[in-house]
Amino acid sequence: MGTIRLRGWKRTAAALCVVLLAGSSAGCIGEPDPPEPEPPAAFALLEAFSARMLAEGAPAVLIAVRTGTRTWTHAAGVRSLDSAEPATVSDPVRVGGITESLIAVSVMKLAAEGRLDLDSQASRYLPEFGSVLHPPGPVSVRQLLTHESGIPDFSVPLLGSGSWAETMNRPLSLEQQLALAATEPWDGRLARIFDYSRSNYAALALIVERLRGQGIDEVLAEDIARPLRLESTRLGGPPPNGMVHGYVTLEGRRTDASMPAWQAESPSTGAVSTVEEVNTFYAALLQGRLLPPDSVTAMKGGYSQYYGFALRRWNNTCNNRFYYGLPGDTDGYGMIAMTSEDGRSQLAISLAYPPAPPTLEANPLIHEMQDVAQEALNSLC
Please, which residues bridge with residue 234 across strands? Predict the structure, then answer.
């Protein structure tokens, strides 16, 4: 169950018909169509990955590739294991950690406007850092962006308070997420290093809300979705029509994990989008259509860093530079998005994972998705 769409890579030749006799009833005989060119090896690699995932129980695989004006898309599987309705490449999916790139753009817009100082202490904007969280030392907004604050991850005490089935539909405000983080010890460290915690982006989203006077969902709509005409990209709300469902297994039973309440509005994992709209977002970001050039440079991070402000990088062997984007891993779903620095070469893969028990650890398939995506893009030079 799959569909493949090619634009640009597929050429259509028109046959020329020469009429020998005016008014002749004989049929026109044209030159035969030239053979279709062989598709790039990248597509065979991606199709093989998709076929294997479906064979291993994945509900759906969606892929969108773009290089310059050429595009290739692939959709295989179903929207729901209950309805078995075929999935399409424009179906909304959970994008997991890619949500953080959206949040980071809204943070950087405030910084570009002079309303937010990245090197100021977070407590300047969030009194909760002094009254609730009690960090062992100063924490800057910049350290929240780079996951170097050391703040405890609120999802650890959340999921420790009951089974996944009991906690999945417990709505959590941003304030409640930080309050949960405060129940865990925040250890001081001599050096600030990357240490992933969902609480970093809960704090950043709350800073954005306070400075904008709007909910983070509306801020993201104004900063990103509306200017780029992204009709499916949003944070929060009920599951959209046509959404590809993701699943986990609980005590051996399959459970729908499409929109658990505690994650539905999470600034670290909650956004919904499509593979094509994710590509549109990253192209716009890297081409400077969302932020000033110096803000984009800051988001990329230093040359020796593989992670900047919600942007990861991978080697681009086509020009000895880099691809930028993020992996997005969450219960039931994996996504990988890579875009070249000029925004012209892109690949996004969304996978509804084969159902498995939920865990706070990354699904091993997310690492394989990154390898497949990087190999595919680098073979399209």
Answer: 272
The pTM of this model reads: 0.90
Q: In angstroms, what CA-CA distances link 377 with 69, 340, 351?
A: 15, 9, 18
Mean pLDDT score, 130-158? 93
Query: What dihedral angle (degrees, nearest 10) is formed by the CA atoms of 279, 280, 284, 287?
Result: 60
d(CA 324, CA 311): 6
Q: Please choose, from the candidates 216, 266, 257, the residue with its C-alpha nearest in 3D space to the C-alpha of residue 356.
A: 257
Q: What is the DSSP string of 23-87?
A: T--SPP-BPPPPPPPPPPHHHHHHHHHHHHHHHTT-SEEEEEEEETTEEEEEEEEBS-TTT-PBP
Give which of 252, 248, 267, 159 is closest to 206, Cα–Cα.
267
Nearest of 238, 273, 283 to residue 91 by alpha carbon:
273
CA–CA separation, 322 and 275 (whole Å): 20
Tokens of 286: 């890297």
pLDDT at 33: 59
pLDDT confidence tier of residue 40, bands split at 50, 70 and 90? confident
